[in-house]
Amino acid sequence: MQKRIRELLDAYVDDVKARAPIKSEAVERAFRRVERHRLLEHFRTYDDDRKWDREIWLNPVRLSTEHLRMIYSDSALFTRVTEGTPTSSASQPTLVAQMLDLLDLAPGQRVLEVGAGTGYNAALMQEIVGEAGQVTTIDIQEDVVAQTRRLLQAARYGRIEVIARDGALGCPENGPYDRIIATVGCPDISPSWTDQLSEGGFMLIPLQHGGEGFCPLTRIWKEGERVQGEFAGFSGFMSVQGELASQQRLSIPDQEQATAGRSATERPLPKPLSSWCDLEELERRLKLLALGLFLGIADSRVYWRPAGCWLAERGRGACLVGRDKVDVYGDPSLYDELMELCERWQRLGCPGLNDWTLEFFPRDAGESAAEGENTWLIPRKFTIELARLRKASAASSS
Q1: How many C-beta neighbours within 10 Å does residue 305 have?
Q2: Where among 183, 201, 233 does a domain terminate?
Q3: What is the rounded distance in angstroms from the CA atom of residue 74 to the CA atom of residue 68?
Q4: CA-to-CA distance for 233 and 247, rounded, in angstroms?
């Protein structure tokens, strides 16, 4: 059995590397050491219509070939579903690897994780920071915490501290932290996280821009009294619960309602957007994500879904930018408004992830954040985010 697991684990890591190359030897080594199946008791699956159809309970003594194949694949595994909405999961392995690469962990560091999940990510981080380091993971769901403690203990990662607490509070008693990572979609950064960050440390937060579900990975650090940031990648996560949660600009139910009962009218993609379909898939997808990021910053009606980038307005409908067309639901003038935003992105040089700088101000210090040319202010629950293009003329086309 152990030989079979070893073969599956090695093939799994090789597949993750092929899909999203792991840059760090320490991250790859951790992936080859931590057995994902040991940090799962059950998970949910859904059918072709995206409806939850069954819950799979794992037999730790005799794991079926089918279940092992599902576990050691590049798939997120949802472990808690409440009223049809996922509330906890084991994240997609390629995303886990990407985030660990970006986290740039080293032996001896102290790490705070917000969103315990199954404990898989915490175990990977503990492997990297080693015996001299410390991983603390917190989750607001007490049943998740109880399960995660049990699984980590059984998998011999009992030194990881798992705490039942609102993630927005952090864990000051174990800080300060060299790294803070959130594995949930966050509408804002918590002031507690900033306070608990060590000198020279940084956070990696899936910070929502636009509608719920579109969470660019955002690297955030302190420089004196200033809190600054930059985009580091793209991700999609379920939303955080507790004090940090806030009314979404476009919640997922609002997004779904925008097209309900409406038929689509096809409209053409303007050039050069129509050339996306001629690009390699990854390049096209990254360009579409870069457009989605710009639109999510520039217009509060825009959000990202797996099918593409949407603009929606309650009562008017929505339109979708897809591979080679735009589908319009409802008011046809939404198409013109979305196309004007897309054309503005093109005029700015099609800025991508690396063309933005970010700064975060407390809500009560709003006068410090001034909106100007190619600068946008995003009011959040605790902060005001200032997003600025470095230089319009220097924005990249990638």
Answers
A1: 16
A2: 233
A3: 12
A4: 24
Q: Identify the DSSP state of 279.
A: S
Q: What angle do CA 179, 182, 183 make, to 5 degrees?
A: 130
In this structure, are residues 180 and 198 in contact, taking their beta carbons and an 8 Å threshold? no
**How is residue 28 written in tokens?**
């790859």
DSSP E strand stretches across the chain: 42-46, 52-57, 77-82, 85-90, 110-114, 134-139, 161-164, 177-182, 197-206, 217-223, 226-233, 264-267, 302-305, 308-313, 317-321, 326-330, 356-362, 375-379, 383-389
Structural domain containing residue 228 = 2-233
**Statement to judge: residues 48 and 176 lie in one domain:** yes
From the candidates 91, 190, 192, 235, give the one annotated as an active-site residue.
91
For the record, the structure tokens of 68 come out as: 């092992």
Active site residue 397: no
How do residues 250-273 score in pLDDT, each as one tens digit? 666 666 677 777 888 999 887 656
Token pair belonging to 244: 């940090």
Average pLDDT of every residue of the chain: 86
